[in-house]
Amino acid sequence: MSRKALIAANWKMFKTPAEAKAFVDAFLPLVAGHARDEIALFPSPVLLPTVVEAARGSNVAVGAQNIHFAEEGAYTGETSIGQLKAIGGTHTLIGHSERRQYFAETDEIVNQKLHTALKHGVVPIVCIGEVLAEREAGKTADVLKTQVIGAFAGITAEMAAPIVIAYEPVWAIGTGKTATPEMAVDAHRIIRAEVAKLLGAQVGANMRILYGGSVKADNATALIGQEEIDGALVGGASLKPDSFAAIVKY
Ligand code: PEP
C-alpha cells in the first residue's frame, strides 16, 4: 500500500506578510524538485494571498488553518471556504486542538466543516488527539474512536478519498514532548481501524494519517519513516525555511 506522504506547516498566528514572503522565497529552492512527498503551508488568513502568490507554480500547496462551515453569512471574523478557494487555497486544517481548546470546536462542528470542505473540493486535514489526562487514564483509544466517529458522521466511502487525518496528541503540541514512534504507530492503527470499520477496508487502507506534535528535523525520520505514518503536521519547526525543509527531506 503506498500512500504519498504529506508534510504540512502550521504557522499558527505567526509572521507578517513580508516574513511569509521571505519564508517562501527561501524555502522553494530548498525543496525544488522534491516529488516524494506533498508539501503544504498553512498560514493565518491575512497571509494567504501573499503565500499563494509566492508559491504559485511550485510544488508547495497552501491552505487555511480553519474555515467556517457556512458558505457565507454574518459570522464576524471568520473565513469562508469560497473565500479560501477564490484566492487559490486548496487545503484546510479542521479541528486543530487549539481550535477545540480555545474556540470551543466540538466534533459536531468539525463534522460540519468537513462536509463543507468536501463539498467544495478543498482537501481537509482533520485533527484529532487525546489530552494528557486521557492518555494517563488509559482512554486514548476511546477518545480517538469517538473523534473519528464524530468527525465522519454522514461521510460515505465515495466522499472519503480526499480526507487526511492528523493524529496530534495534545500533550505533544508545542511542548517539546514527542510521542515515541511506537506510541504514534499504535494510535494510527486504532484510527485506521476505526476508519475501516466506518467506511470499509479500502478507504481505511488508503487514508493518509499524519503525525503532529513537536516534530523536528532530528525526530522526523524515526516518525515519518514508519509505514503507518503518512507524513507530519509541524508547528514550531515549520517557521524557519531550513528547519522545515530538513523535515520535508527526512
Ligand atoms: C501543530 O501546531 O499542529 C503542532 C504539531 O505544533 P508543534 O509542532 O509545535 O508541536
Describe this structure in words.
With 250 residues, this protein is α/β, with parallel strands linked by helices. The chain has one domain: Aldolase class I (TIM Barrel). The protein is 42% helix and 15% strand. It has eleven helices and eight strands. It has an eight-stranded parallel β-barrel with strand order 1-2-3-4-5-6-7-8, surrounded by six helices. Strand 7 (208-212), helix 10 (217-224) and strand 8 (231-234) form a beta-alpha-beta unit. Helix 1 runs parallel beside helix 2, helix 1 packs parallel to helix 11 and helix 5 (107-119) packs across helix 7. The radius of gyration is 17 Å and the shape is globular. The model has no long low-confidence stretch (mean pLDDT 97). Bound molecules: phosphoenolpyruvate. Residues 10, 168, 173-174, 212-215, 233-237 line the site of phosphoenolpyruvate.
What attributes does this structure have?
8 strands; 250 residues; TIM Barrel; binds phosphoenolpyruvate; 8-stranded parallel beta barrel; 42% helix; 11 helices
Write the layout of secondary structure elements.
Layout: E1 6-10, H1 17-31, E2 38-42, H2 48-55, E3 60-64, H3 81-86, E4 91-94, H4 97-102, H5 107-119, E5 123-128, H6 132-136, H7 140-151, E6 164-167, H8 181-199, H9 201-206, E7 208-212, H10 217-224, E8 231-234, H11 241-248
Parallel strand pairs: 1-2, 1-8, 2-3, 3-4, 4-5, 5-6, 6-7, 7-8
The protein binds phosphoenolpyruvate (PEP).
The site of phosphoenolpyruvate (PEP) has 13 residues, from strand 8.
